[in-house]
Structure to design on (125 residues):
């Protein structure tokens, strides 16, 4: 199993990961370190453990907010999907109705044409 070296709050850590995940793990560590550094800038030196816990909680809070947004978006997609299905059903019903009316109109025209043919004087020539 491959190992990578990451740095969090100025300390290096050797971590194992799955093959091909090295770059991803390094990127995650860099993002977490940015949270630690941001907190350190805001609250000062409060001890490594406390700073790391606070950064971890901040990251989990961001994750929880993202999950809430995803849930809201999924609900919105469901509403829009249902609305789209309803509109599609209405369009299909309108198409069927239009086709029926067009068929009725064609029959009426054929009937009228037949009556005209029957009553029209035959030209003598």
């Amino acid at each position: 199993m491959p190992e990578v070296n990451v740095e969090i709050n100025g300390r290096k850590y050797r971590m194992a990961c799955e093959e091909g995940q090295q770059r991803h793990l390094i990127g995650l560590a860099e993002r977490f370190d940015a949270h630690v550094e941001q907190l350190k800038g805001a609250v000062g030196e409060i001890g490594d453990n406390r700073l790391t816990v606070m950064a971890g909680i901040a990251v989990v809070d961001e994750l929880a907010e993202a999950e809430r947004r995803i849930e809201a978006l999924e609900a919105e997609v469901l509403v829009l999907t249902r609305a789209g299905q309803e509109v599609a059903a209405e369009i299909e019903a309108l198409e069927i109705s239009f086709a029926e009316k067009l068929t009725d109109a064609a029959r009426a025209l054929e009937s009228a044409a037949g009556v005209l043919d029957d009553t029209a004087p035959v030209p003598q020539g």
Q: What stands out?
A: The longest strand covers residues 3-8. Residues 3-117 form one domain. The chain has one domain: 3-117.
